[in-house]
Amino acid sequence: MLRCGTDIIEVNRIKDAIEKIQNNFKNRVYTQKEIEYCESKNVQKYQSYSGRFAAKEAIFKALSDIIEDKYKIKWTDFEIINDKTGNPHVQINTDIIDKNKIKNIDISISHCKEYATSMCIVEITE
């Protein structure tokens, strides 16, 4: 079975949250590796933060049927890590999701000055 999730976010919403709430927002939503990656992007760091935010939303939507307790899931349970070629991959850091049911996860992130978007396709075993 294939499941799809998608999300789009305004970059300024994430920028405002980071600047107003600062570390509370960052640490609630992003892992340390994600923060380091986004901060390394300098001028485009807010686009990177926004892309990862959209990716986590897309992943949650795609996996919603197999998340055992939706009220216990945290933003940091999904970590977006880029491989050596720059392609994003999903690391799941929770036991709330039965990882044995996930055969494959494919994620795509795109952003421009004003928006970031992500699409996730998950192959789930039945």
Topology:
Blueprint: E1 2-10, H1 11-21, H2 23-29, H3 32-39, H4 45-63, E2 78-82, E3 88-92, E4 102-111, E5 115-124
Antiparallel strand pairs: 1-5, 2-3, 4-5
Helix pairs in contact: 1-4, 3-4
Structure summary:
With 126 residues, the chain is an alpha+beta fold.
Annotation keywords:
single chain, 126 residues, alpha+beta, Ribosomal Protein L22, Chain A, three-stranded antiparallel sheet, two-stranded antiparallel sheet, 4 helices, 36% helix, globular
Q: Would you give an account of this structure?
A:
Helix content is 36%, strand content 31%. It is an alpha+beta fold and 126 residues long. The protein has a single domain, classed as Ribosomal Protein L22, Chain A (Alpha-Beta Complex), CATH 3.90.470. Strand 2 and strand 3 form a beta hairpin. Helix 1 packs across helix 4 and helix 3 runs antiparallel to helix 4. The radius of gyration is 14 Å and the shape is globular. The chain starts with a strand and ends with a strand. 28% of the residues are buried. The model has no long low-confidence stretch (mean pLDDT 93).
